[in-house]
Model the fold of this input.
Amino acid sequence: MPMNSVGFLNDFVDTPALLINEPVLQKNLKTMAAYCKNTGIALRPHTKTHKCPEIARRQLDLGAIGLVCAKLGEAEAMAEAGLGPLLVANQVIGPLKMKRLLKLNDQVDISVCVGRVEHVEELIRTAEGANTILSVFIELEVGMQRCGAAGPVAALDLAKKISDAPRLEFRGVMGYEGHAVGTKDLVARHHKAETAHHELALAVAMIRENGIEVPVVSAAGTGTFNLGVDRDELTEIQPGSYCLMDSDYHGYENVCDHFELACTVLATVIDQVDRRIVLDVGLKSIATDQGLPVTRWREDIIPFEIHEEHYCMEAGEDNPVPRVGDRLELLPSHICATANLYDEFHVFREQSLIARWPITGRGRYT
Amino acid sequence: MPMNSVGFLNDFVDTPALLINEPVLQKNLKTMAAYCKNTGIALRPHTKTHKCPEIARRQLDLGAIGLVCAKLGEAEAMAEAGLGPLLVANQVIGPLKMKRLLKLNDQVDISVCVGRVEHVEELIRTAEGANTILSVFIELEVGMQRCGAAGPVAALDLAKKISDAPRLEFRGVMGYEGHAVGTKDLVARHHKAETAHHELALAVAMIRENGIEVPVVSAAGTGTFNLGVDRDELTEIQPGSYCLMDSDYHGYENVCDHFELACTVLATVIDQVDRRIVLDVGLKSIATDQGLPVTRWREDIIPFEIHEEHYCMEAGEDNPVPRVGDRLELLPSHICATANLYDEFHVFREQSLIARWPITGRGRYT
Done:
């Protein structure tokens, strides 16, 4: 029971700290790259998980065809690092963002999503006003009840409008089956993913039947990266969490067979009474929206209560109680929301701290 | 029903953005300062809520005797801005933090908390090794079951040890009745606060009976700022959230009579189908640990689901449905955790954006 397998970091890394085990990260990146290469599907990883140019660069070096960003601000962070092509898998709206989009469009190959006529019209006005070409994906709503065109007919209408616009370039159609990705049961998840991809394929077919080329068809997250993606219509997948993983995802059948936990939060015991201990991490420094984090190697330590900067836990009977000053590794239950709380990753390999990677996309919500 | 009372910000502030209504903030600051002046209790506000030197400076300008910080990193942020005296209301542990504490101790009047003998011993070693004086508070556990000495006898033992150490200066005793602060019912909250302050007074009395001076006795948060603080033993209160407030606190009897909501998150509608709308804010940009945020002026808009960067809501029947591009103000349910997600406040007064205040303490968890 190695209570602190990263004890060599004690002299260099203060807590709480976000750690990356670099060989595990690299293994995850290679596993997904190899899967895509073997199955002939392109990989466009989502940067929303790590928001870190160094990890994005590794993904591109291993063959990814581009990056997906959740926000224009994240795309700016990647462009600042010289990375691309970029797809903002979101609706980009309003004059302030249009200015920033034009600036980015001069620097890097960037596409944005539309789901409604208003989105297309704003992009048309923007492209015409700037005398430039803007690249566009249609987002299709495939069952998540979030954003996107509601079905094939709505998608076709948007495709026509985009194709008719001299200053817009229609790049493809995207659907994100988040409702499937978040379904724990593998059979149900597989079924939902297949249904969503079928919806996507129907819309693409209708657009193509109307003489409009659809170069890219994009879908899937880490939970569905290999579920129902064997359709000819899908040209690429856009998983995010696979690189770092988290304890929630790692409980998922299919996912846990392929990827390992590469990222943990290092914490210090600051108080202890009987079997109860208090760690110097709280809901400001580790995400709790997917559940309370557990302790690596010490599953017997049960969460008691989490505060803003304190985590109160109780060590199981028959196990040693960690003492003040001891360090424990916590497994984030939601890595995307946890990494968003930090400015850097502390990266180690074997017994060495090899780098600190800035999370330059963090906090860039606009 | 003013759907967007901050529409004048449209040309300057992109969304999501954290807004401060400056006159409301200033009114909250003055209300608490006046309360403390009138009752003769000192005010040492907690910076964990705003982590923002500009707000801390205003608190000091209005008579606060110092600042409370949750972490050494927050104290560093305040010291960098030339602010103090500082009390880190937490146990500061380990050689890396000891180095930083010594550095801060050269720059500013700073105190840290201890709750166990190990904490005192590390501070003694540190102060002796550096040939300097370190200031110390004892934290007493007063019912929250978190950190601190367990009762008067344990506190007295620590006080003796601190007093006997030639290089430690004993500044006072602190108790935080978080379990009372978080109790919605006013009568129960008042009772818990009084009980906690009584525990604190007992410990202080025992220390004083043993001939040790206790200059400062500190307690209370925003929920208990005027509950049970009329004891002679309490010399100061340390509320945090009163400055900005949040919708959770504002639902509390007693609190809502004194303080108003000064801080909101501005969001844009990016998609809409029937009565359902999607905002460009999510759990990465607004805290959800105290419940889902509601929409200002539009209480009819009911939360449907929150994702990392999307907030799906449904407008009530008989009310207009916000359209793509419309902006809405959300009321954070937990302002401390929300402000921790942003790098700056956008500050407005009447119809003008008057400043952007950096949240320099954000992310400084160590």
